[in-house]
Structures are given as C-alpha cells and as structure tokens.
C-alpha cells in the first residue's frame, strides 16, 4: 500500500541520518574546531620602556621654586596684596576703583584665581560703578635668572584692559626702575602687547620703550593662553637678556636696560583696568569681565628647553619697536 511504502522510505531516511551522525561523532568527517585561545603580545621588557624623567634620554623638567596655590581655603591676601582705590586714574585716566571685595577677586573650588571687573554705571555710589581688582604678589622673582609662566584667560571687550606684568617691589621709582609687561590687551582686539619700559612718555625717552604687538588666535574668544617670560642677568654688572613667549613661541627679546632695578627685585601684578587713555576713552558696558589665572609658577630655567631654548630663540626673535 502507498502508506506502507511511504513509511518504509521515512524509516530509511532516519537510518541514513543516524549513520551520518555516527560518522561525525567518530571523526569520520572534520568537525568544527573552536578558535584557538587569543594570543596576547608578550609583556614589554622593562629595558625597552620609554625613558622616564631623570633617566638618560629624557630632558629633565625645570625646577619650580614658587607656584601660586590658588587654595580656596586660604585668603587671597596670603599670597597677594590688594591695591585699592582709583589713585587719580592710575596715571591713565582710568575709571575703575580697585577693591579687596570677594566679588572682585576670588579662588574657585577647582583652584583657579579670578579677577572680576564689574561695570554698574547706574549705581548711586560713584565708587561702585566700576570696580575691579589689582593684585601684587608677595613673592619676588628673587633670582638673577629664571622664568615666569602663567596660563590666563583674558577678558576682551571695549573699555577693558587686563594686564599681567612686573614692577620692582615698593618703594620704587617709576619708570626709571623698569616695567615689564607680559600680557596686556585692550578694547577686545585680541592683540597682546609684550613691553619693556624704563623711560617717560616724552620725545627724549622714545628709545626707552620696546613693544611687540602679537595677534593671538582665540584670545578674544576666551581661549586660555600660555605666557612665559625669562630673564638672565649678571648680578655684578646688571647686564643681561630678556625673552618673551606666547604659547611656546618667542615673540620678543630685549637687553636689560642699564640703571634699572635688579630683576630679582621684581614682583608680579595682575589687574583689569577700565576706560582711560589706553582704551581711547571707551567705557565698558554694564556687566562682568573676568580674568582667569589657571596656573602661575616661577622656574629656575625656561620650560620646554631650558637655557638652550633661551639662547636659540634669542638668536632669531626680534627686539621690540620703539614708541
């Protein structure tokens, strides 16, 4: 019967499948092999590790002899002196009043120093319409040679003039004792002015001012910029050399002028001026303007190359223009 024939065929197929399975289990056909265990590369021998600091072949990092702490648990006055008031426009017809108030200078929880200029033109108290901070470091350069490095975010706007600069510790005679400007920009133009001053703004002192104006990419848009200034001076003669860098690029050099105070006597100033002659009479609009100091330190030699970098860059970078 057809049913019996179909059943017989079905049984024959089952038997064939069973025999095929036996062949596979007994190795009659190649079975699927699991992948071999992953072969990891052998450990790198210690002798082939890259040289670490202090080992041959790795340039040693310059020694830091002072670093600003920016500790929010410590008063700013521990490391910085606040200059106060308007001081008759600070010689430039500036409009700001410097204060020691926490709203004008403070440390952040993540260890940044912020100087804040505040424009409140409608405040009934004239002394509070334009307030800012002017800080002077208690630390001096204190060495005949070394390097000062800082990373700053500078406020760039009309009527705003932030500065990172050096003067001798007080008392001093300005300008004959010397002034060094490392970072300053005004009216939001995104141009930094590296300067050396040791004369008055008179025709006979024209040669006593050296300036290089450097457009700095991103500075006007809030990019942090790294500034470095290095000095090397013979304590016996007072002669020496100065070099300025922005983001690792040398921008200016100058010999140390005769008769100025020793570089070891200089201290650091940070401030945000408002209005005045340099800003060509522009007045900042209502609001706040922050200078953020991310890092500041003094080194025994220039970073990323030491005195070899100093000598190399001295050989090609330009001297400043006269005013």
Automatic annotation (TrEMBL):
One GO BP: carbohydrate metabolic process
A Pfam family recorded for this sequence: GH16_XgeA
Gene3D superfamilies per UniProt: 2.60.120.200
One GO MF term attached to the UniProt entry: hydrolase activity, hydrolyzing O-glycosyl compounds
Residues of the GH16 domain: 64-323
Biased composition (Pro residues): 33-44
Chain spans, region Disordered: 19-62
PROSITE patterns: GH16_2 (PS51762)
InterPro entries referenced in this protein's UniProt entry, alphabetically: Beta-glucanase-like, ConA-like_dom_sf, Glycosyl_Hydrlase_16
Domain of life assignment: Eukaryota
Name this protein carries in UniProt: GH16 domain-containing protein
Organism: Fonsecaea nubica
């Amino acid at each position: 019967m057809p049913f019996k024939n179909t059943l017989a065929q079905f049984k024959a197929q089952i038997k064939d499948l069973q025999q095929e399975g036996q062949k596979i289990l007994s190795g009659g056909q190649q079975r699927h092999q699991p992948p071999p265990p992953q072969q990891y590369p052998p450990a790198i021998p210690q002798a082939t590790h890259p040289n670490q600091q202090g080992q041959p072949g790795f340039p040693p990092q310059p020694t830091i002899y002072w670093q600003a702490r920016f500790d929010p648990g410590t008063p700013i006055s521990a490391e910085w002196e606040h200059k106060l008031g308007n001081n008759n426009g600070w010689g430039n017809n500036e409009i700001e009043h410097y204060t020691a108030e926490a709203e004008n200078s403070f440390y952040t929880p993540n260890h940044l120093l912020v100087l804040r200029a505040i424009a409140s033109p409608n405040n009934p108290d004239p002394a509070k319409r334009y307030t800012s901070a002017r800080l002077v470091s208690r630390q001096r350069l204190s060495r005949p040679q070394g390097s000062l490095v800082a990373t700053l975010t500078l406020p760039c706007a009309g009527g705003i003039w932030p500065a990172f600069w050096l003067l001798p510790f007080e008392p001093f005679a300005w300008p004959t004792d010397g002034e060094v400007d490392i970072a300053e920009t005004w009216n939001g133009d995104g141009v930094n002015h590296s300067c050396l001053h040791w004369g008055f703004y008179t025709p006979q002192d024209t040669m006593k001012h050296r300036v290089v104006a450097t457009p700095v990419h991103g500075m006007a848009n809030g990019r942090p910029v790294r500034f470095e200034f290095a000095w090397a001076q013979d304590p016996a003669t007072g002669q020496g050399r100065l070099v300025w860098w922005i983001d690792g690029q040398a921008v200016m050099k100058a010999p140390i002028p005769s008769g100025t105070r020793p570089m070891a006597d200089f201290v650091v100033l940070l401030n945000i001026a408002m209005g005045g002659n340099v800003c060509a009479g522009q007045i900042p609009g209502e609001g706040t303007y922050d200078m953020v100091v991310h890092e500041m330190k003094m080194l025994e030699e220039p970073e990323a190359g030491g005195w070899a970098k100093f000598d190399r860059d001295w050989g090609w970078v330009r001297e400043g223009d006269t005013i």
